[in-house]
Amino acid sequence: MTETDSVMRAMTNDGAFRIVAARTTDTVQGVIQAQKLSGRVAGDLADLVTAAVLYRETMAPNLQVQCIVQGAGGSGHLTADSHPDGWARGLVQHRRGADVVRIDGGGALLQMLRTLPTGQVHRGVVTVPASSGISGGLMGYMQTSEQILSMVSVGCVLDDGDPVTAGGYLVQLLPEAREHEALLAVLTERLRDFEDIRALLVENDAAPEPLVEEIFYGIDFTWLQESPVRFGCTCSRARVMGSLAALSADELASLMVDAEPLDMSCNYCGARYVVELGELSGLLDRS
């Protein structure tokens, strides 16, 4: 059984259905710990990270994607990034004074972005269904913005704020499925039992193999590919220095008023970067 995070793809032998299933337990644990989260918002961000992984693996395996939830009533934003190298990360931005980002109940929006090889960004926005959360939002996006009939379920089980297990699946209906109406009816009915997969995730430690085998039970299918998933971030000292180098002379001078090193941390992963006064002075001399 899978003991580390991964994504597995499979396709029915008749070419009618494709599935992408993921275990993201360790990845979302890294995200939740870096963001210092607990409770409902931890579970919602975990689900969004899993959704980002499934979206990238389905639509753009070689491209970076980002999923953003705009909470109802201006309650804040959740952001999840997934990268072709396998890393994923997440970020919570609350409205001042709020401790949750409202997703259920209506009014939340899900924005899906992926960077194209040309450098352009493909963007789509859908409403998050009032009762089905991130799963329903991703499913609605796939069907309205991508014109691909899909079934999606993501889930996370928490214990005192720490993820016990997390993962999900996306089943994609391919054009050939229309020639297999009986199989389509069977699988559509079966997927009703997989709308909430949290119990199954706990039972199998979120391993994608048994999840795929359960969904495709009695249907001939072929495994296609397995890819690793992990918590990670693009921040680095070089990026920090590059950002500072882009500031104007006045902006750099304002950072040196207190005559103290500049202490910065990454919003995503919490990594700390200290820029000494001499380094700031060197940037100022070159500006």
Protein architecture, described:
This protein is α+β, with helices and mostly antiparallel strands and 287 residues long. It has two domains: 226 residues, Hsp33 domain, CATH 3.55.30.10; 50 residues, HSP33 redox switch-like (CBS domain Like). A six-stranded mixed beta sheet has the order 7-6-3-4-5-11, with helices on one face. It has a five-stranded antiparallel beta sheet with strand order 8-9-2-1-10, sandwiched between helices. α1 packs across α2, α2 runs parallel beside α3 and α8 runs antiparallel to α9. The longest helix is centred in the first third of the chain and has 21 residues. The N and C termini lie far apart (56 Å). The model has no long low-confidence stretch (mean pLDDT 89).
What are the salient characteristics of this protein?
single chain, 287 residues, alpha+beta, Hsp33 domain, CBS domain Like, 2 domains, five-stranded antiparallel sheet, 9 helices
Q: Quote the average pLDDT.
A: 89
CATH class identity of the largest domain = Alpha Beta
Radius of gyration: 21 Å
- In which range does the helix fraction lie? 25-40%
Helical run tally: 9
What is the rounded distance between the termini?
56 Å
Low-confidence stretches: none
- Strand order in space, largest sheet: 7-6-3-4-5-11
Query: What is the name of the CATH topology of the largest domain?
Result: Hsp33 domain
N-to-C order of helices and strands: EEHHEEEEEHEEHHHEEHHEEH
Give the CATH H-level superfamily of the largest domain: Hsp33 domain
Count of distinct structural domains: 2
Tell the overall outline: elongated
Query: What is the structural class?
Result: alpha+beta
Count of extended strands = 13
